[in-house]
Known about the structure:
CATH superfamily of the domain at 21-161 and 204-240: Vaccinia Virus protein VP39
Strand content: 15-25%
Number of helices: 8
Order of helices and strands: HHEHEHEEHEHHHEE
Strand order of the largest sheet: 3-2-1-4-5-7-6
Bound molecules: S-adenosylmethionine
Structural class: alpha/beta
CATH architecture of the domain at 21-161 and 204-240: 3-Layer(aba) Sandwich
Helix content: 40-55%
Mean pLDDT: 90
Number of strands: 7
Amino acid sequence: MLLPEQSPEQKGRYVRAMFSAIARRYDLLNTLLSFGLHKRWKQYAVAVAAPPPGGLALDVCCGTGDLVFLLHRRVGPQGRVVGVDFAEPMLHLARKRAGGARGVWFVQGDAQALPFADGTFHAATVGFGVRNVADPLGTLRELFRVLRPGGRLVVLEFSRPRSRLFGALYDLYSYTAIPWVGRRLSRHPDAYWYLPTSIRGWPDQEAFRDLLHQAGFRSVWYRNLLFGAVAVHAADKPPGRQEGRPAAANPSLAGPEGRPEVRS
Ligand SMILES: C[S@@+](CC[C@H](N)C(=O)[O-])C[C@H]1O[C@@H](n2cnc3c(N)ncnc32)[C@H](O)[C@@H]1O
């Protein structure tokens, strides 16, 4: 069981083991528990990220790859998309879904230490992932680092409902139906108890906007979805803020067969 006094290493181990254990039922539960809404939210997040056709996009905490496949549609056949997750069973399902599609890669890695060179990606997304990492600010800084100057980060995450009535219903649903259905279908003792608990401990819309600023992003804005139970934050890396090598001269963009080079 997840305890509040867990160290960052313990949290990482717990979260990884939990997502590995529930991977097989993850998509089904996502669709059931959100009444299918997560698909629309993800479409919206990718529309906001708007990677250019032929561009290079990244999805961190990619799970079974929903956002990766949507990004791939946006960048088109000349573009490339990389999904990163630390739970191998999630990546296994994502690779199966990809079926060897050109321009899509799934890489095992930690969101807090991304295996890519500075300034690699035109756009990056994180869907329901940053709440789960032990160091959210460190993760946002990593995303800032691997984005090109002018690149955009979009974070889709649970947030704070703006309506009292909806908030009360949502609390009831989160602490009764979600753990009940989640436990039965995932067969994990506390994964779907961890879900509402981690949401309640997560910063609200404004606090998360401030965290994005702290990580170096500018032009930060958000849009509430489902009365604020979910929010999409968009944040831009200012043009000209490239530490390290310039992206154009970056060999990571020209790895074997055009595959983005992954540093181990
Ligand atoms: C709630 S799922 C979201 C999956 C997917 N983005 C979606 O929206 O369906 C969170 C994912 O984040 C991954 N994750 C959590 N912490 C991570 C970390 N530090 N590094 C990489 N992946 C991580 C988990 O393995 C899990 O697959």
